[in-house]
Amino acid sequence: MKTAQISRRSFIKELGFLGALLFLPLNYRDAVIRPPGAGKDFLSRCIRCGQCIEACPYDSIMALDITAGALAHTPYINPLKTPCYLCQQRGPDGKDRPISKYLRCGEACPTGAIRKILNNKEVLAKVPEEMKMGVSVLNRDICLAWKYDSCGECYYNCPLKDKALRDRPPGELLEDITGIRPYVDQRYCIGCGMCNYVCPVKRHIAKSYMDRTIKLTYFEERYAAMVRNLIGAAGESVKLPAIRVVLRP
Amino acid sequence: MKETKSEHKAHSLKIRYPRRLIQLSVLSILIWIPLVTMNPHDWSPSRIVLGHLPPPTVREISGDTWSFTFYGFRLTHPVAFFEEVLAAKVVYIPFAVSVIIPLMVTLLLGRVFCSWLCPVGFLLELNQKLNATLKKFGLHYELKLKDFRYIILTLSLLFSLLFAVPIISAFDPPHVFGRELIYIFTHKAISLSGVGLLAAIFLFESLSTSRAWCNYFCPSGGALSLLGAKRAWRIRMEKDRCIYCEKCDRACPYYLEPMRLATGGDFNWTKCDNCGLCRDACPTGAITFRFGRRL
């Protein structure tokens, strides 16, 4: 009788343990940038069909390889290679036009792992935080615009210009400036990685000045020299480029 | 004996013809989809920033045998659906709607996906001839294998249930095949795991037991077997016509020995995938396809 009770109790304990296991990994998120609209339950809902990769109009979405283990073939975005263009097409007049009604990856996803997001800049700026790809972080110490007043690529190329990226910080008093002092508004930044992609503070741009393998124009040489100075002053351990996309906490 | 032969002839319309046609069209659709949805590659995305891009290709056709989209109409492999529900613990309604047609087809007609649609199954069927040729030259190493399909299926379903990560897609060769085509056309790349699996299967089946993957390893095929076990469309043996020539036994790719239906032995209905090779091989037309209960 006693032994039966003990075994029953241990059985119930084991059941509880299993039940806890069932719901534990649902909030697990790994350290790569997922397509826009991927929520917290993305990994459990993705069946790796590859339709988002096929649907992406700029081939930004790639698949993880076998080194990711059980997560192989799930989609991710490497903003240094190809950023997410948020399904926009910039015309000759400099205005962005949506190329589809919804973001294509969310439209193609059969399981709802990537949510459908309306392709409208007002909507894109106000996507719930857990569905955003990440958030941009600006390092003012190595930013060309903040140090030398000679850049602004991230501001001009941001798909959510004047919302996610502003030309100067709102609260701070900056007098006598004419150029751009980029400032990331974390409430609106969707983490597409365009700023990460266009930022010139990268090692290969600094190196092109040193090697002299490529013929550079006068302005390009000056540009590369400034980048080299910034990276050199910051040290080897600094993370490049100056504006990067990181996952939201 | 002569009378029976003149009375009963083999089926003139082989079921192999429509089956080959469907298999070929599935294979060509799988190649056609990434070809037409491919984005222009004469520009390099790594060099051009927003503002200088050519108009991208937007067509709402995508997918393969695992999950397929055609302008809002979706189809999903039943195994993908069950696995996703086990992992996510929620049912997404559009996803559930997309699985209805494939699920009904499997319940009614059995594991016809494997014999009528699967592109890798088609290529493996063609590979049987290479296997036979290599056998003539002595390049054949017969291995004794057991049916591991249900073990692999159970383990991977348990994995997706416990760790909330669906993984069967990695062991589903038709999907691996379609996905490799997507990678080739979109990124001009192949994945090591996918090509490795396909190459291993083809190498093994050329040199050893033919149709070994479909017979002993395929987890999604195993799941479709279980779903189609109580199907309505089956082969049917007319015992008075059977002349016990054993041609159907030799034709069956799964070594199920359909002649047992005439001799009264045990037939593995679960594994049969309605390919119709025994029906085509029968010289007297004793094996037919019928709707209805089993005999």
What's the helix count of chain A?
10
Number of domains of chain A: 2
Number of helices of chain B: 15
Principal-axis shape of chain B = globular
Which bin fits the share of residues in helices of chain B? 40-55%
Number of strands of chain A: 8
**Which word captures the global form of chain A?**
globular
Helix fraction of chain A? 25-40%
**What is the N-to-C succession of helices and strands of chain A?**
HHHEEEEHHEHHEEHHHE
**% residues in beta strands of chain A:** 5-15%
Q: Tell me the count of domains of chain B.
A: 2
Ranges of chain A where pLDDT stays below 50 over 5 or more residues in a row are: 23-28
Quote the beta fraction of chain B.
5-15%
Instruction: Enumerate the spans of chain B where pLDDT stays under 50 for 5 or more consecutive residues.
Output: 44-48
The total beta strand count of chain B reads 5
Q: Quick summary of this structure?
A:
The complex is a heterodimer of chains A (about 250) and B (about 300). Chain A is α+β, with helices and mostly antiparallel strands and about 250 residues long. Chain A is built from ten helices and eight strands.
Can you characterise this structure?
The complex is a heterodimer of chains A (249) and B (295). Chain A is α+β, with helices and mostly antiparallel strands and 249 residues long. Chain A has two domains: 27-131, no CATH class; 135-246, no CATH class. In chain A, 33% of the residues lie in helices and 10% in strands. Chain A has ten helices and eight strands. In chain A, a hairpin with a 5-residue loop joins strand 3 (88-90) and strand 4. In chain A, helix 9 crosses helix 10. The N and C termini of chain A lie far apart (52 Å). The model of chain A is unreliable at 23-28 (pLDDT under 50). In chain B, the strands form two sheets. Chain B has a three-stranded antiparallel β-sheet with strand order 1-2-3. Chain B has a two-stranded antiparallel sheet with strand order 4-5. Chain B is globular and about 65 Å long. In chain B, strand 2 (67-70) and strand 3 (73-76) form a beta hairpin. Chain B has helices at 2-7, 16-36, 78-88, 93-98, 100-109, 112-117, 119-136, 149-163, 173-187, 192-207, 212-217, 219-227, 247-251, 260-263, 277-281, and strands spanning 61-63, 67-70, 73-76, 233-237, 287-291. Chain B folds into two domains: 2-13 and 233-291, Alpha-Beta Plaits (2-Layer Sandwich), CATH 3.30.70.20; 17-39 and 58-227, no CATH class. Chain B starts with a helix and ends with a strand. Chain B contains 15 helices and five strands. Chain B is mainly alpha-helical and 295 residues long. Chains A and B meet through helix 1, helix 2, helix 3, strand 3 and helix 4 of A and helix 3, helix 4, helix 8, helix 9 and helix 10 of B.
